[in-house]
Design brief:
mainly alpha; 7 helices; about 180 residues
């Protein structure tokens, strides 16, 4: 049944990323889930085509997205997609393609870091310190979550992380508006 649900995909008929009329960041998650499902039902060629399309969408977002705060979080959203695409093509012994995907992921990380550095040079020190503290808190709770064995602790840490990410996103949106 699952196999028939995913049987009709033809990536060649998908519109170019620039013409998509919907939230592209949300679409990334949908496409990643779809490609993962295709991989699970052993439709490797379709999954690979969909991952390549998704990587093209990532490149488009990276270059054209207007919200600076979204660009700051792009790496967090897309690294699992790059990793899954690399795993898939390596499982098919396509090392050259895996290398190309890895290079694209490095470019995404590098451009995000350049954008952050560029934005940070114009911010007052107290705002930079505030952002650094927020990031440190996020890393702290991520570590606690990873090390926690008890379910109730994990739920507490997940809620803390959710709240911290929301607070950090709001802070970045405020920076974009005011600076």
């Amino acid at each position: 049944a699952l196999s028939s649900l995913y049987g009709g995909l033809n990536v060649k008929h998908l519109p170019p990323p620039a013409t998509l009329p919907i939230d592209r960041l949300r679409l990334l998650k949908i496409l990643n889930s779809y490609a993962a499902a295709l991989t699970k039902i052993n439709r490797v060629d379709q999954a690979q085509q969909l991952y390549i399309y998704t990587l093209d969408l990532i490149d488009y977002i990276r270059l054209h997205h207007s919200r600076l705060s979204a660009k700051f979080h792009l790496v967090e959203e897309v690294m699992p997609i790059y990793e899954a695409a690399i795993q898939l093509v390596l499982s098919q012994q396509q090392t050259e393609l895996a290398f190309q995907i890895a290079e694209r992921s490095k470019a995404t990380i590098l451009l995000e870091q350049i954008a952050k550095q560029s934005a940070h040079q114009y911010l007052p020190d107290e705002l930079l310190i505030q952002e650094q503290r927020q990031q440190q808190q996020i890393v702290f709770y991520e570590r606690l979550l990873a090390e926690s064995q008890r379910q109730e602790e994990r739920a507490n840490y997940q809620q803390q992380l959710f709240d911290l990410h929301r607070e950090h996103d709001a802070f970045l949106e405020q920076l974009v508006r005011e600076h």
